[in-house]
Structures are given as structure tokens and as C-alpha cells.
Amino acid sequence: MKTMIQFLGTSDAQGVPRMLCDCAVCRSPQNKRSRPSIFLHSRTNILVDVSPDFRQQFIDCNLSIPKILLLTHAHNDHIAGLGDLADLCFWQKSKLTIISPQNVLDEVKQKYPYLNSSRNVYFLPKDHVVLDDMFISFHLVNHGNNGTSYGIKFTSKDRQWSYVSDVICMTSDQLKPFYHLDLLILGASYWDVSDYPHQHKRSIYDVREALQVKEMVMPQKMILTHMSHDIDISKRVLPEGVFFGRDGWKVMI
């Protein structure tokens, strides 16, 4: 069964344009990006992460209410839309099941203690699950200065693809699940971070490093997401088979 992936947001944690920034990228409508998330248009309708911009993303993309929320980790730019999503599910009498490994759900529950079955929100701690004929697995990866995150791999009868938005310096063991995919969606916040003074505090690959990852794991296609205002997608050129994500863009897998 084919799945339609829709990019709801493709920016880093600060969004593009950044607040009070007058750089050329932030002034460019072509580079307008909201915080990162994807939506799987399938029988169940699956949301991966729920950004602070979820409400506007839901309206702009004319989405259906997701039944499942998968979380890569519990940082603000990946869960801060949860209150809006929970309100939507409560008022529309729609059940929401949040799936992620136990450590992520524990942190979410601490931040949103009012979310429970009385609000139509249910927590399912799992590192793998089967949904819509897809085997979905969570794989721990380095998130640099920000600790750890999970890459999510989707495996069906004839397709394998992964969403790994917040990652840097993957070890050889961490790379193993992501070899020879049909599609790898990978976070890359800067074009080349080597000239930036804060590089020792980094938490996500730059584009140069992401392309090195591609050479190692050899996906058929790669789409970059989690991009800061350092990346002008209208001017930068990528190798064949590598693409910049765009808010609202739909990709069939």
C-alpha cells in the first residue's frame, strides 16, 4: 500500500523567518518554513511530531484529524502543538493515541499532566508497532548538545523509509537501520557550519554532513528538513536524488 507523506513544517526550532531577523533568507517568501512535522495520509492518518505551528499547519493543509501521533523526542519544537491537537480531539470526540518509547512519553506526561483518557488522549509506550500494514520502529540516535532523539523507520511489504529529523554524529550501530532505504528524510540545519562560532554546541547535521551520510547509507532518495535561515533553497544546488523539503509538499512512497 502506498503512503502519501506531507511535510507540514521543515524549519529548525526558531522557524523561518526568525523573529527580528532581517537577513535575505528571512525576507524571502520562498524560504518561509514552520517548525518540523510530517503527516501520513493513510487509513489511520498518522502525525509525526506536533510542532508549535500545528494549528496553522492543520488549517493551511486542510488535514484530517490524526488518530496516531508518533514522537521523535520531547523538545519544544516537536511537541508544543500538543495542547492544540488534544483540544481538537476532545471537542471533535476523536481518540488520539500517542506512541513513542517510554522515556519520551514520561517527559511528555510531565509537561502535559492534564492529558489523559478523559481528554480522549491515550499513551502507548512502544519502540515498535504495526499500523496500516507498516512495521514502525524507533531507533535511538545522537542529538549532540541536546541529548538523544529517535529516528522512525517505516517498513512495508515493498518500501522502507525513515524520518530522522534531529541527529548528528550517528555511530555505525545507529546507522544500521537506515541503510538502502527508498527514502531518508534527514535533518540538516545549516549549509556548512564550519564557519560558525557555536559549532561545538551543535545538535543537527549540516547539509555537507548530510550528504556524507547519504554516501554511507545509500538511500534511493533523500529529503532534507529542519532547516535554519542559513539555507536558501532557491539558490543552493543539491546533488541528484537529494531535495529540500518544503512546507505543504506531498511525496508518495
From TrEMBL:
Residues 44-227 form the Metallo-beta-lactamase domain. CDD domains: metallo-hydrolase-like_MBL-fold. InterPro entries: Metallo-B-lactamas, RibonucZ/Hydroxyglut_hydro. The keyword NAD does not apply. GO terms for molecular function: hydrolase activity. It comes from the Bacteria. Keywords: Hydrolase. This is MBL fold metallo-hydrolase. It comes from Shimazuella alba.
